[in-house]
Amino acid sequence: MQFFVFLGVDTLIHAPKHNTTEDLIAILSGTFLVAQGVYFLQQAGLLTGGTTGLALLVTQFVDLSFGTLYFLFNIPFYLMGWKRFGKEFALRSVFAGGMVSLIVDHIARVFTIEWLSPMYCGLIGGLLMGVGMLMIFRHNASLGGFNVLALICQDRFGVRAGNVQMAIDITILLASFFFVSPWLLVCSVLGAFVLNLVLTMNHRPDRYVVCY
Q1: What is the enclosing helix (H) or strand (E) of 161?
Q2: What is the C-alpha to C-alpha distance for residues 6 and 9, in angstroms, rounded to an integer?
Q3: Per residue in 43-67, pLDDT tens?
Q4: Which helix (H) or strand (E) holds 101?
Q5: 10-48 confidence digits (pLDDT tens)
Q6: How far is CA 64 from CA 59, 68, 113, 192, in A?
Q7: CB contact burial 32-45 (16+ within 10 A = b; e otherwise)
Q8: What is the pTM of this model?
Q9: Whole-angstrom Cα distance, residue 2 to residue 18?
Q10: Which among 51, 52, 65, 143 is least surrounded, fewest beta carbons within 10 Å?
């Protein structure tokens, strides 16, 4: 993946392509941050948008883990990513999504939360997920789900990925109104807002032109 970084009006710097080791470390770091953020939301009973929110919601009704549902929900989007962005992007996304599923399902073995404010969980969960996704996006991968759709909209129509993701997330959260208390819904919306604010402010096509 190559970046052309714009600094000011007339300055253009050609940034070198990341090597395989850099990509692997960044994707692993990003998936860990996302998984940690999901775990905070999960422990507080919060929801979020996208396939993450759907998986968190469905775990309340079926006897399947978050990781299993999350990966299954993302399969169609991995195929979409393969078709639109190519084999390398799709395989990296499968790896990233699989790592998030694995970490979330097993993180309780090394880390547990007895109690935290739902408001705090929404804030820190959204922030960690946003930063983690940003790292993954910058290294030619995604987590599947609506992230792929958001990237396609940015690539094809020039609409910021964060704005597309925010619209989808808010829609899913509003649809979850009957499944969580009003307070938890407010905290969930706050988390989704923080997540998408990070993406909107930092994943900018006018600042970073990505050549796949």
Answers
A1: helix 161-175
A2: 7
A3: 898 888 788 888 888 888 888 999 9
A4: helix 87-106
A5: 333 444 577 888 889 999 999 999 999 999 999 898 888
A6: 6, 7, 21, 24
A7: bbbbbbbbbbbbbe
A8: 0.80
A9: 8
A10: 65
